[in-house]
Amino acid sequence: MKLFHHSFTDIESIKKIKRQPDFDNLLRVLNRQKPSRHTLFEYFLNGPLTYLLTSHIEYDANDPLAPYKKVIDSYRVAGYDYAPLQGAGFGFEAGSRNRREGTKTISLNEGAVITDWESFEKYGWPDPDSFDYSRLEKLKSYLPDGMKIIVCDRDGIFETVVYLTGYENLCFMLYEEPELVREIFNQVGPRWVRYHEICASFDAVGAHIIGEDLGFNKQTMLPPGVLREYLFPWHKKITETIHRAGKKAILHSCGQVEEIMDDIIDDIKYDAKHSFEDKILPIEQVYDRYSDRIAVLGGLDVDFMARAKPEEVYNRAVAMLERSAEKGGYALGTGNSIPEYIPHENYFAMIAAALFN
């Protein structure tokens, strides 16, 4: 591995590499195999970074596909083998979710629209078949050779239920109206299953990432037994649907989920796990503990990425690539995503570990 050099943090150095996408490399990772070269994975980038990576490309302002093309180009320029895109605008409408004054935080109790049986009966449940998925076909010809789309969802099943009920209300409901909770999950679950079924039918799609934050820093947001009863059967249907189409299923879940990792791996059968934090379990330990059973994606802690020096970021990224070099089953990236407060030079230092070695 090369020693760190300041040029690794220069956007122009990154652009000169012109790496050819090869989704088969990511597939090898997802199959817990050794890829033919170092492989990158990121859930999503931020707007300014996307602009920086694509500032040399002109887009037609009247082209409705331009925002998706920009995502594709930003991931291509940065050396990824895929681009993450929502398959359609499908989602569930809840009430207003206002940010707390002076912060960027949104309470999980904001915007609840289902609080009892009456509001449940009145809610307008969306039909996933009524949404437009044509972007997944139209963008096929725009994808560079070797690149695939990883389909994202707007919210996970559990996240959707929380948005509809409010987190505290949901906790009370589990004790006061458990059958109402069951029916809410039974309305939300099959609709997300159908969304992924539709998306998986497109040739441009190579994998799906299901965004479902299930934990706090110390424990799961609901008791594991509750998750197994109400939620996990629907996740299992999602992974079965994706696998039946010959695609891979990735779980993005923040928080402490150690108590349910056996469910995630052995029962639901996700191919890969994403989202890790140093204060819960550093990525180095995650890889050592779980990489024999599930592919491990990303993991360089977001706080570390924000505070460390570029050389420190590069060296830790190199160390992770070396740690996983023989066994495989790992793709380099952050523990969550690239928010705007991560310095660009730190992001470039991280991907340089894969691109320059």
Topology:
Blueprint: H1 11-17, H2 23-30, H3 47-54, H4 66-77, E1 82-86, H5 117-122, H6 135-138, E2 148-152, H7 157-165, H8 167-176, H9 178-200, E3 205-211, H10 224-244, E4 248-252, H11 261-267, E5 272-274, H12 283-290, E6 295-297, H13 302-307, H14 310-323, E7 330-331, H15 344-355
Parallel strand pairs: 1-2, 2-3, 3-4, 4-5, 5-6, 6-7
In brief, what are we looking at here?
The protein is built from 15 helices and 7 strands.
Distance between the termini: 6 Å
Tally of helical segments: 15
The rounded Rg comes to 20 Å
**Can you tell me the residue ranges where pLDDT is under 50 for at least 5 consecutive residues?**
none
* Helix and strand sequence: HHHHEHHEHHHEHEHEHEHHEH
Work out the strand percent: 5-15%
Largest sheet: 7 strands, parallel
Total separate domains: 1
- Give the strand line-up of the largest sheet: 1-2-3-4-5-6-7
